[in-house]
């Protein structure tokens, strides 16, 4: 079955794509290969066309595709072993990756606080593990804290516990209300890195009152620092993150940072935590960890958290994925981390400026509510829901793959994208919005 029309027909009839219907499936495009920052698509008539991937494959392929260093790491590791169980066994790729993560974890007092690494399957699973860590840590000594505290507008994954800390009203998981554990949600902080002072002060007062009402039952504050991802691509003030972290610690709760989307240079710093100068008690990383080659995530925690979890009734963290510490994924992740150099992180800051310039014309469009950028993230927000298929089609005609959602047309290009590619991406975004929404 090599004919493109046959492949797409079988796909339409049998494959279930993310957030899609099997009875009314959305159109899909056939990818034949990928190299650099481009995808080669094959149309039903057999013709091929190259397009720039403005999405970094859902934000993970930060180095692009067919990366020589990552290909070599994969090939070398395949020559040794692709997988071995992590229960009772260990191996060099996992140990090396853990060392690199610990050495590069957020640290502002000159000392590394995040000293233990749990290797998980995916970003959502890493949040699941982080929440378990927090619950188990408080069980030590007979304490029980059942709730998580977070802000509206967040997204932390599609498995059960992470769904409970996603926005319960405007998020993708509102259908599960009544099934999920009920957490405590503060209002959205003011938008933007600075935020209006008066509005911010009102938000802080309201959030403090809400927290103190539930403080004895709060196990942890869970946040995507600085940028909320799939919940709305919303930028909010670093001081709000610092305030929430201090609130948690003043009341004996833990601080969990979900840096699955923001880590590894995406925002122009190694971590979003670097912009708020807060070291969390638990840090979740994923997506770009392997440069988009294989699924892998990690949960880093402090020695205090690790001791509390290990000193509880169970005597262990009660989680153990079959593919935990997969050697192939760890070897590639280690090589990927070596590519996240200061120069590559600095490129994200340059991309921010280039995206701002390329997207500026969108401000004049009647359909546009806001235009914003931070690091290698550019967003055009509309007044109404985006026509996903129409915008996607117009962008493809201009040589760019985008995947809009909700009221957002956005890009998260690979960090290796040059200025011409960013101009092409930004131009396609503006043109698609103008042609489809006006």
Automatic annotation (TrEMBL):
Q: How does it assemble?
A: Homodimer.
For this record, an example GO cellular component is: cytoplasm
Q: Which reaction does it catalyse?
A: (8S)-8-amino-7-oxononanoate + S-adenosyl-L-methionine = S-adenosyl-4-methylsulfanyl-2-oxobutanoate + (7R,8S)-7,8-diammoniononanoate
**Per its database record, what is this protein's job?**
Catalyzes the transfer of the alpha-amino group from S-adenosyl-L-methionine (SAM) to 7-keto-8-aminopelargonic acid (KAPA) to form 7,8-diaminopelargonic acid (DAPA). It is the only aminotransferase known to utilize SAM as an amino donor.
Q: What class of enzyme is it?
A: transferase
Lineage of the native species? Answer: Bacteria, Bacillati, Actinomycetota, Actinomycetes, Micrococcales
Name it. Answer: Adenosylmethionine-8-amino-7-oxononanoate aminotransferase
Instruction: List GO molecular-function terms, semicolon-separated.
Output: adenosylmethionine-8-amino-7-oxononanoate transaminase activity; pyridoxal phosphate binding
User: Which GO BP terms, alphabetically?
Assistant: biotin biosynthetic process
Cofactors needed by this protein, per the record, are:
pyridoxal 5'-phosphate
**Record: residues binding pyridoxal 5'-phosphate:** 123-124, 258, 321-322
Can you tell me which residues bind substrate?
Answer: 58, 155, 287, 320, 403
Q: Which PANTHER family match?
A: ADENOSYLMETHIONINE-8-AMINO-7-OXONONANOATE AMINOTRANSFERASE
Keywords for this entry? Answer: Aminotransferase, Biotin biosynthesis, Cytoplasm, Pyridoxal phosphate, S-adenosyl-L-methionine, Transferase
- Report the EC code(s) recorded for this entry: 2.6.1.62
Stated family: Belongs to the class-III pyridoxal-phosphate-dependent aminotransferase family. BioA subfamily.
Q: Say which domain of life the source belongs to.
A: Bacteria
| InterPro entries the UniProt entry points to | Aminotrans_3, Aminotrans_3_PPA_site, BioA, PyrdxlP-dep_Trfase, PyrdxlP-dep_Trfase_major, PyrdxlP-dep_Trfase_small
Site feature location: Participates in the substrate recognition with KAPA and in a stacking interaction with the adenine ring of SAM = 19
Pathway membership, UniProt = Cofactor biosynthesis; biotin biosynthesis; 7,8-diaminononanoate from 8-amino-7-oxononanoate (SAM route): step 1/1
The places in or outside the cell where this protein is found are: Cytoplasm
């Amino acid at each position: 079955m090599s004919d493109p029309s046959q492949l797409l027909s079988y796909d339409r009839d049998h494959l279930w794509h993310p957030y899609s219907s099997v009875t009314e499936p959305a159109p899909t495009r056939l990818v034949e290969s990928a190299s650099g920052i481009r995808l080669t698509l094959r149309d039903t008539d057999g013709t091929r066309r190259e397009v720039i991937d403005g999405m970094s494959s859902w934000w993970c392929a930060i180095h692009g595709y067919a990366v020589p260093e990552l290909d070599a790491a994969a090939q070398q590791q395949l020559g040794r072993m692709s997988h071995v169980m992590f229960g009772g066994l260990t191996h060099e790729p996992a140990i090396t990756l853990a060392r690199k993560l610990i050495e590069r974890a957020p640290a502002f007092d000159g000392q590394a606080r995040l000293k233990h690494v749990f290797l998980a399957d995916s970003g959502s699973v890493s949040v699941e593990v982080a929440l378990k860590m927090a619950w188990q840590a408080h069980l030590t000594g007979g304490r029980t804290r059942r709730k998580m505290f977070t802000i509206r507008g967040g997204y932390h994954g599609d498995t059960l516990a992470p769904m409970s800390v996603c926005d319960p009203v405007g998020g993708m998981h509102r259908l599960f209300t009544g099934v999920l554990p009920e957490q405590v949600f503060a209002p959205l902080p003011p938008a933007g890195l600075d935020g209006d002072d008066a509005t911010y002060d009102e938000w802080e007062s309201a959030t403090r009152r809400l927290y103190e009402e539930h403080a004895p039952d709060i196990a942890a504050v869970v946040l995507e620092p600085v940028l909320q991802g799939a919940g709305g691509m919303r930028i909010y003030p670093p001081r709000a993150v610092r305030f929430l972290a201090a609130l948690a610690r003043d009341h004996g709760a833990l601080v969990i940072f979900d840096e699955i989307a923001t880590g590894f240079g995406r925002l122009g710093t190694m971590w979003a935590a670097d912009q708020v100068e807060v070291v969390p008690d638990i840090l979740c990383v994923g997506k770009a960890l392997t440069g988009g080659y294989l699924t892998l995530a990690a949960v880093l925690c402090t020695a205090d958290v690790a001791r509390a979890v290990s000193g509880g009734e169970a005597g262990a963290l009660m989680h153990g994925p079959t593919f935990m510490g997969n050697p192939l994924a760890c070897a590639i992740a280690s090589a990927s981390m070596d590519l996240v150099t200061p120069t590559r992180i600095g490129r994200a800051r340059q991309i921010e400026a280039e995206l701002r310039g390329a997207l500026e014309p969108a401000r004049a469009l009647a359909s546009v509510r806001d235009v914003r950028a931070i690091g290698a993230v550019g967003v055009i927000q509309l007044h109404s829901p985006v026509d996903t298929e129409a915008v996607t089609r117009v962008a493809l005609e201009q040589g760019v793959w985008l995947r809009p959602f909700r009221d957002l047309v956005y890009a998260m290009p690979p960090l290796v994208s040059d200025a011409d590619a960013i101009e092409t991406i930004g131009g396609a975004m503006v043109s698609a919005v103008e042609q489809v929404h006006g």
